[in-house]
């Protein structure tokens, strides 16, 4: 990588900042609660409660706990939303309030043009809970007896649609479906839309909820999920004993805003988003390219987009799924791009505490990366006890670090070879 020329490749355009954050995830029902738990290495993984099959080989999941949709919406509305959409509405409520965009009556604040405010919320699978429920209903009572809300509850774009409808956001509303990379793609695409003048504001990220017998059976049978029944030794990214990921669920959303627009309305600026890269391994439907080339290239694209040198990066919130191939491939990619600086980088996987949220992962990890910069605290890779000699970087094992972070990256690597990476920096 020609770092001497990288600054010349930075894309010109409007500056984009983050002014709001919202999340619902296995570690908490708000940004404050969940990041406090993440900082302290508290694992949100526990025995599965969503379905009961005693002989099921997978015992653990990262379920959202004590979630009450009626705190965020009317009962009638909740009945017509799959849980992945309920999570998005809850996270959006926090993010919009955090950004100072909601009046006391719940409407969009004065001075915000809804036609320049878009919505981009990814989901990898959509309303699988509803699909399973309605399929069983159809098998039992006939398929013309399924709910008339079945389709709008189950389609993956409906989280974005419901959030847009809730606040009257009339800019572009979309849903990238790109497996585990979707949430990061949503953030990056939103950043480019604002930078290039197509929007002034975006609410973006990812949401997912598919802790169901069908989904868990499918992921388990392909060998992706750990069979560990010890919550502290199940999701262990970069550990020599890692044996697969833990399914998680939840949502993470960010409000992105053109810098001058945020300044003029006296918004609280959390940090700036400055770079984005996306590509494809074009290698295999589920396995990453073992050379790490695709992941390395997406890091390079992101750095070039931001005009940032590799040695300027302080921290990477890694994809870090706790699978043998991903963690090794990601480590190779970091070595290839960052060279000697890779030894100085702080890297951690917050999936060690949340599990893997699939299409919601990039959104939640985007929230955590922004908080890392805002608070100057790098979260740990919890329960990383046994070093893998092939994963030889500083993964901030077990205990977080208080450290000033000026530039941070978050990457996501998904089935189908989808790769995405975003870069944030302190304002």
Provide structural commentary.
It is a single chain. With 427 residues, the protein is an alpha/beta fold. It folds into 2 domains: 16-264, Thiolase/Chalcone synthase (Peroxisomal Thiolase, Chain A, domain 1, 3-Layer(aba) Sandwich), CATH 3.40.47.10; 275-425, Peroxisomal Thiolase, Chain A, domain 1 (3-Layer(aba) Sandwich). Helices cover 32% and strands 17% of the residues. It is built from 13 helices and 14 strands. It has helices spanning 31-39, 75-79, 83-98, 128-141, 150-154, 158-167, 182-195, 213-221, 259-264, 293-306, 324-338, 351-354, 361-375, and strands at residues 16-24, 46-47, 60-61, 117-122, 173-174, 201-208, 250-258, 271-280, 315-317, 346-348, 377-378, 401-402, 407-414, 418-425. The strands form 3 sheets. The chain has a 10-stranded mixed sheet, sandwiched between helices. A two-stranded antiparallel sheet has the order 2-3. A two-stranded antiparallel ribbon has the order 11-12. Helix 7 (182-195) packs across helix 13 (361-375). The longest helix is centred in the N-terminal third of the chain and has 16 residues, at 83-98. The radius of gyration is 20 Å and the shape is globular. It starts with 15 loop residues before the first strand and ends with a strand. The model has no long low-confidence stretch (mean pLDDT 96). It is an enzyme of class 2 (transferase). Pfam families: ketoacyl-synt, Ketoacyl-synt_C.
């Amino acid at each position: 990588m020609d770092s001497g020329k990288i600054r010349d490749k930075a894309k010109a355009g409007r500056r984009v900042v983050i002014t709001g954050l919202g999340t619902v995830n296995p570690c908490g029902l708000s940004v404050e609660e969940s990041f406090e738990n993440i900082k302290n290495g508290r694992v949100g993984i526990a025995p599965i409660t969503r379905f009961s099959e005693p002989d099921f080989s997978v015992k653990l999941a990262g379920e959202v706990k004590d979630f009450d949709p009626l705190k965020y919406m009317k009962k009638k509305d909740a009945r017509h939303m799959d849980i992945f959409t309920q999570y998005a509405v809850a996270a959006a409520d926090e993010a919009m309030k955090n950004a100072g965009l909601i009046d006391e009556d719940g409407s969009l604040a004065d001075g915000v043009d809804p036609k320049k405010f878009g919505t981009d919320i990814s989901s990898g699978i959509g309303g699988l809970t509803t699909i399973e429920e309605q399929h069983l209903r159809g098998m039992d009572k006939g398929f013309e007896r399924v709910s008339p809300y079945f389709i709008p509850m189950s389609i993956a774009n409906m989280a974005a649609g419901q959030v847009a409808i809730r606040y009257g956001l009339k800019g572009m509303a979309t849903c990238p479906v790109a497996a585990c990379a979707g949430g990061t793609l949503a953030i990056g695409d939103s950043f480019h839309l604002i930078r290039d003048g197509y929007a002034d504001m975006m609410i973006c990220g990812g949401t997912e909820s598919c802790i169901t017998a069908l989904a868990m059976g499918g992921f388990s049978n392909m060998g992706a999920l750990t069979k560990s029944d010890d919550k502290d030794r199940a999701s262990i990214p970069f550990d020599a004993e890692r044996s697969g990921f833990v399914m998680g669920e939840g949502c993470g959303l960010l409000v992105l805003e053109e810098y001058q627009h945020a300044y003029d309305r006296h918004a609280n600026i959390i940090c700036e988003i400055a770079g984005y890269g996306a590509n494809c391994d074009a290698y295999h439907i589920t396995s990453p390219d073992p050379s790490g080339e695709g992941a390395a290239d997406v890091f390079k694209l992101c750095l070039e987009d931001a005009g940032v040198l590799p040695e300027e990066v302080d921290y990477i919130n890694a994809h870090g799924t706790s699978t043998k191939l991903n963690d090794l491939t990601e480590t190779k990619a970091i070595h290839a791009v960052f060279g000697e600086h890779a030894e100085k980088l702080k890297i951690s996987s917050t999936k060690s505490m949340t599990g893997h949220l699939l299409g919601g992962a990039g959104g939640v990890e985007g929230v955590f990366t922004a908080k890392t910069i805002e608070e100057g605290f790098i979260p740990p890779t919890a329960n990383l006890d046994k070093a893998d000699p092939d994963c030889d970087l500083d993964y901030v094992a077990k205990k977080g670090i208080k450290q000033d972070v000026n530039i941070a990256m978050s990457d996501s690597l998904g089935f189908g070879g989808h790769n995405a990476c975003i870069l944030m920096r302190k304002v």
